[in-house]
Automatic annotation (TrEMBL):
InterPro entries: AAA+_ATPase, ABC_transporter-like_ATP-bd, ABC_transporter-like_CS, P-loop_NTPase
Pfam families per record: ABC_tran
Protein name, as recorded: ABC transporter ATP-binding protein
Domain ABC transporter: start-end pairs: 9-238
Endoplasmic reticulum keyword on record: no
Originating organism: Brevundimonas naejangsanensis
Keyword Translocase: yes
Keywords, sorted A to Z: ATP-binding, Nucleotide-binding, Translocase, Transport
Gene3D superfamilies (UniProt xref): P-loop containing nucleotide triphosphate hydrolases
Job description of the protein: Part of the ABC transporter complex HmuTUV involved in hemin import. Responsible for energy coupling to the transport system.
Top-level division of the source organism's lineage: Bacteria
GO MF, one example: ATP binding
C-alpha cells in the first residue's frame, strides 16, 4: 500500500471568531504536495478566515491548525515563512520602489544580491522580467499583481497560499497567474488558492473545498464538489457542467432574486 503524503497545511475542527461573531465553525481542510486546492464559496463564507487560521494569523478558539505537521501557534515567524508563502488580497504598495526590490521582500532572510537574483528570476516567471527596474507606482494594476505574485514565489516555500489572486485582473493575466500556481504544484509544491470563478477553479485545481457559513460544505474533485446540490445550497445557482475545449465549463443561473 502506498504511503499517504503528509499534509503541508491542515485545519482540524477549526473554530474562530472575529468581533464576537463566528467566522469558522468546525472547518476541516488539508493541502498536500503536488496539488492545487481551490477554496471557493460566497463572500463571507470563511475562505479568508481559513487561510489566516492556517497561517497562524487568526487564533482558533477550538481545533487545530498545522503547517508541515506542526502546530502553527508553536512555530516562530521565520519558521512559518519557510513553510508557507502568502499572497494576501491586499495589493497596495506604499512606496514607488523598483519591482525587483518589491519582489525581493519575499526573501527577507537572503543576503541582498542573492535576494535580488531570486527576485529577477521570479519576475521572469510571471512574465514581467523586463519591468524589473520600473517603479511599481508606474505600473498597471495587473502588473503590480504580478509583482506581488513574484514576491510570493521568491520564498520558494513548500506551500504557496494565494487569497483571491486573480480578482480584478484581465483574462490573460488571470490565466497566467493560475498557470504559475499550477506549475508550482506540478513541480511538487502545494497550493491553496481562494477563487470566485468556479470554471477556472475547476480547470486548474485538483480539489475544490467549498465553504459556507464557516464550514466545509464539500471537498473533492472539482465537478463532484460543485454538484447541483452544492451549487444550490452554497451559491444560490442552478448549474450544469459542460465539456469545453480547455476543460469543464459551468453554465448557471441564479435561483432566487433578491
Amino acid at each position: 500500500m502506498a504511503a499517504v503524503t503528509a499534509a503541508l497545511l491542515e485545519l482540524e475542527d477549526a473554530h474562530a471568531r472575529l468581533a464576537g461573531a463566528p467566522v469558522l465553525d468546525g472547518a476541516d481542510l488539508s493541502v498536500r504536495p503536488g496539488e492545487v486546492v481551490a477554496l471557493c464559496g460566497p463572500n463571507g463564507a470563511g475562505k479568508s478566515s481559513a487561510i489566516r487560521a492556517g497561517l497562524g494569523l487568526l487564533p482558533l478558539s477550538r481545533g487545530a491548525a498545522r503547517l508541515g505537521g506542526d502546530e502553527v501557534r508553536r512555530l516562530s515567524e521565520r519558521a512559518r515563512g519557510a513553510r508557507a508563502a502568502y499572497l494576501p488580497q491586499e495589493r497596495s504598495i506604499a512606496w514607488n520602489l523598483p519591482a525587483v526590490e518589491v519582489a525581493a521582500l519575499g526573501a527577507p532572510f537572503l543576503a541582498g544580491a542573492a535576494a535580488l537574483d531570486r527576485a529577477r528570476a521570479a519576475l521572469d516567471e510571471v512574465g514581467i522580467g523586463h519591468l524589473a527596474d520600473r517603479g511599481v507606482g508606474e505600473m498597471s494594476g495587473g502588473e503590480r499583481a504580478r509583482v506581488l505574485l513574484a514576491r510570493a514565489l521568491v520564498v520558494d516555500a513548500p506551500l504557496l497560499i494565494a487569497d483571491e489572486p486573480i480578482a480584478g485582473l484581465d483574462p490573460d493575466a488571470q490565466l497566467l497567474v493560475l498557470e504559475r500556481l499550477r506549475a508550482r504544484a506540478d513541480a511538487g509544491g502545494g497550493v491553496l488558492v481562494s477563487l470566485h470563478d468556479l470554471t477556472l477553479a475547476a480547470r486548474y485545481a485538483d480539489r475544490l473545498v467549498v465553504m459556507s457559513r464557516g464550514r466545509v460544505a464539500a471537498d473533492g474533485p472539482p465537478t463532484e464538489a460543485l454538484s447541483p446540490a452544492v451549487l444550490r445550497s452554497a451559491f444560490n445557482l442552478d448549474g450544469v457542467w459542460l465539456e469545453a475545449l480547455d476543460g469543464p465549463l459551468l453554465a448557471a443561473r441564479r435561483l432566487h432574486q433578491g
